[in-house]
Amino acid sequence: RCDRPGRLIVEWDTRSRFGNPRRMVSSVTDAGRDFTARVDLRGLPADQSIFYRARFEDARSGVLSEPWFGHLRSAAKRPRDIRFVWGGDTCGQGYGINPDFGGMRIYESMRRRRPDFFLHSGDVIYADGPIPAEVTAEDGSIWRNLVTEEKSKVAETLHEFRGNYRYNLLDENLRAFNAEVPQIWQWDDHEVTNNWSPSKELDDRYRQVRDIDTLVRRARQAYLEYAPMRVARGDKLGRIYRKVSYGPLLDVFVLDMRSYRGPNTDNLQSEQGAQTAFLGREQMRWLKRELRASRATWKVIAADMPIGLHVPDGVDAQGMRRWEAIANGDDGQALGRELEIAELLAFIQRARVRNTVWLTADVHYCAAHHYHPNRAAFQQFEPFWEFVAGPLNAGSFGPNPLDGTFGPEVVFQKAPPTANSSPRAGFQFFGEVEIDAQSGALSVSLRDIDGAVVYSQTLEPWQPA
């Protein structure tokens, strides 16, 4: 991002001395894009260290900015060891950048793991969560934040949504992380407002905007301006779901559980329809097609919400419990949004899609869940694992109750003794996945704010009998 109309110039090379750099130049950016710019680096050599330097050129004078430097490693065409990290929930519950605490320290802990890439599972910002100068933490101590005007209230204007992304970039840990680690983003609710769906009624904090559709439109524009992702030509909505291939061992299926959902309801409908939509029909068709076609050893399904955890959203006008995620508090056969998940899991079994693992965040604690038909009311699926990681510098909560429809078992969980515990309490978690090129085994570690392992699990790839 620059501060005036300009072009982004990116040079990259496989050597840090930039002896033979390739050069890419963006179109001119301006205030209409918040002076953000991107270039699409296609055709990078496989399995190489890529060093890059980026600078802006003033569109009028041609004056160049100071350069920014970074590096990454490209995906391989042949099997090689892979390591990536994931998590979600950044700068929530009023816990922002605290210089006395060392800023968003968990990003530095993730950087030190030297991952091939980072999967942000959503809640990249908290547009509905102002950052005050001080917050009283769970132990009575004072948490002191850096503050900005845009983060002093809930985001309503496009300028305020953009300011949420700019706020996060004030953190030195995050900037250092961004310079070294390629990223895959998805979104959840707080990029717009808490628990948003088409039925969302905005509370009294929203004085300028009362219409959820207007809020979503502005939020999506800001998200797409700052997200490190391609936006296809002619894509007016800005599609977020996509597949990211990382060599022969790994495909990542990035889901969008927000844009196509129906309203948050009691979630007890017996047949699929507009009320039960979660992924939506188009995304579901895409996911089935891509899963069936995938030849990668491991298929990671990146979900912005967990499958079997209760995530409530208050009550409706009739006093019925309303649900924010998939689970509905009924341990019986699939109902409501569970019908889509049942359809997907049955397809995975029927199509013999092997080695699927679900990764998610959202609930602000870490957990390992194992799903098995022998424990489930709905039984047409193969056993699978779901791993939960977060938050990444936000309040900690949990644990949430389980819904029995798909037979989940809590194999591990770690949550704070006090709800909304500050990052200082230590209940901040990220996940790490390592795939061994020789054996094909996938190992998952859940790590705390300092990078220490609190739980690990190794999964062996399916082998024909």
TrEMBL record:
Any one Pfam family match given in the protein's UniProt record, by short name: PhoD_N
Residue ranges occupied by any PhoD-like phosphatase metallophosphatase domain in the UniProt entry: 86-445
Domain Phospholipase D N-terminal: 4-73
Organism of origin: Stutzerimonas stutzeri (Pseudomonas stutzeri)
Gene3D superfamilies associated with the record: PhoD-like phosphatase (3.60.21.70)
Lineage, opening ranks: Bacteria, Pseudomonadati, Pseudomonadota, Gammaproteobacteria, Pseudomonadales
Protein's name in the database: Alkaline phosphatase D family protein
